[in-house]
UniProtKB/TrEMBL annotation:
Zn(2+) binds at H52, C77, C86. Residues 2-124 form the CMP/dCMP-type deaminase domain. This is Riboflavin biosynthesis protein RibD. Its EC number is 3.5.4.26, 1.1.1.193. Signal peptide: none annotated. Binds 1 zinc ion. Converts 2,5-diamino-6-(ribosylamino)-4(3h)-pyrimidinone 5'-phosphate into 5-amino-6-(ribosylamino)-2,4(1h,3h)-pyrimidinedione 5'-phosphate. The active site is at E54. Pathway: Cofactor biosynthesis; riboflavin biosynthesis; 5-amino-6-(D-ribitylamino)uracil from GTP: step 3/4; Cofactor biosynthesis; riboflavin biosynthesis; 5-amino-6-(D-ribitylamino)uracil from GTP: step 2/4. NADP(+) binds at A156, W172, T198, D202, G271, P272, R273, L274, A275, G276, A277. NCBIfam families: eubact_ribD. Pfam families: dCMP_cyt_deam_1, RibD_C. One of its GO terms (biological process) is riboflavin biosynthetic process.
Length: 338
């Protein structure tokens, strides 16, 4: 027998498993409890066109869901998209109670809680809502509210704030632990963006790989922003994953083009000039810095011109979390509005 909070934690864990495979849909998790509180079904959103988390969990539960509770990270949908409404599936399964974390901000799909209540189902919203909103549903909620993908600018810097040595070499500044973590993050986002300068300087692969170099199961879309010529032999153009080029260099236009393709969650991996342009255009939602205990003394700064001419114009951040990543300090921070 598990409590509802424990069930929600299991639903969050299930949703984490499918991060990066559901866009433009949200990665949702659902746990179905029988009337006695036993877990009888666990599900997570299938890729677009496939069933939502509730339906996957209800199928696993079968008749044991009758009179039970569905615990789900997002308010069940009440609309027919590529699949029928989850509210219908919950009612057909005879669930007596639905507990969800976050309400659906999408005006087309929302209203599920009301539909269920009107049909006599007990509904409780808000359980572990902050955790879900800051975690598995963060990027999707951002894109549902703003219409543009969520952007994490990730960089590795020396303790003196440089992201390459004087000759342009930068492999590697951060530790093996940090780089392995970045590869796991890559496998969970929809797209990685780099500028032509980085492609020219580093010839990066921009794939998600295990420490032994083998490709992970899921690869993000690789996106190169900028107009300059690049060698056709660049690693980013190999067939390990899809790569697109976005000319023009306007961050908002680039993100709009990606949103058109269903991209929700973006990792911006540089370089300094492109990152500066994204910050100046207010297109960075989270900064993820791996600061390594190494000094370079010369070489490009981690961030290029970001439109800051005077200290009063500095981009102020709020730190969300600092942790050690092997020998490096990992800082997650959010630019302040205003
Ligand atoms: N440590 C780290 O985490 C990282 C380090 N690096 C290092 O950074 C260095 C490369 O830096 P950098 O040249 O700045 O790399 P960028 O990837 O930022 O590329 C800059 C180029 O991108 C194009 N571009 C497209 N849109 C814009 C825009 N809005 N504003 C500015 N440029 C735009 C321009 O080229 P075009 O003329 O083609 O349009 C520009 O020259 C290398 O030494 C690399 O090793 C890079 C990434 C991460
Ligand atoms: N130098 C540096 C990073 N650099 C980033 O990684 C890219 C290389 O990717 P790949 O070819 O796929 O391994 C490179 O172009 C740049 O964007 N990342 C880090 O985590 N730590 C580091 O020290
Ligand atoms: Zn649904």
């Amino acid at each position: 027998m598990v409590g509802e909070e424990q069930a929600m934690r299991a639903a969050i864990a299930a949703s984490e498993q499918v991060r990066g495979t559901t866009s433009p849909n949200p990665p949702v998790g659902c746990v179905v409890l029988a009337p006695g509180g036993e877990v009888v079904g666990v599900g997570a959103t299938r890729p677009p066109g496939g069933p939502h988390a509730e339906v996957v969990a209800l199928r696993a539960a079968g008749e044991r869901a009758r009179g039970g509770t569905a615990v789900v990270t997002l308010e069940p949908c009440a609309h027919t998209g590529r699949t029928p409404p989850c509210t219908d599936a919950l009612l057909a399964a005879g669930v007596a109670r639905v507990v969800h974390a976050v309400s659906d901000p999408n005006p087309v799909a929302s209203g599920g809680a009301e539909v269920l209540r009107a049909a006599g189902v007990e509904v409780r919203g808000g359980l572990l809502a902050d955790e879900v909103a800051a975690g598995p549903l963060r990027a999707w909620l951002h894109s549902a509210r703003t219409g543009r993908p969520h952007v994490t600018w990730k960089y590795a810097a020396s303790l003196d704030g440089r992201s390459a040595a004087a000759d342009g070499t930068s492999k590697w500044i951060s530790s093996a632990e940090s780089r392995a973590e970045v590869h796991r993050i890559r496998a969970r986002v929809d797209a990685i963006i780099a500028g032509t300068g980085t492609v020219r300087a580093d010839d990066p692969h921009l794939t998600a790989r295990a420490p032994d170099g083998t490709l992970l199961d899921r690869q993000p879309l690789r996106v190169v922003v900028g107009d300059g010529d690049l060698p056709s032999t660049a690693k980013v153009f190999d067939d390990a994953a899809e790569t697109i080029r976005l000319p023009g260099g306007d961050p908002r236009a680039a993100l709009a083009a990606l949103a058109e393709r269903g991209v929700v969650d973006v990792l911006l991996e540089g370089g300094p000039r492109l990152a500066g342009a994204f910050l100046a255009a207010r297109c960075v939602d989270r900064v993820l810095a791996y600061v390594a205990p190494v000094l370079l003394g010369a070489g490009p700064a981690a961030l290029g011109d970001a439109g800051v001419g005077s200290i009063s114009q500095a981009w102020r951040l709020q730190i969300e979390e600092t942790t050690m990543s092997g020998p490096d300090v990992r800082v997650s921070a959010v630019p302040q509005q205003g």
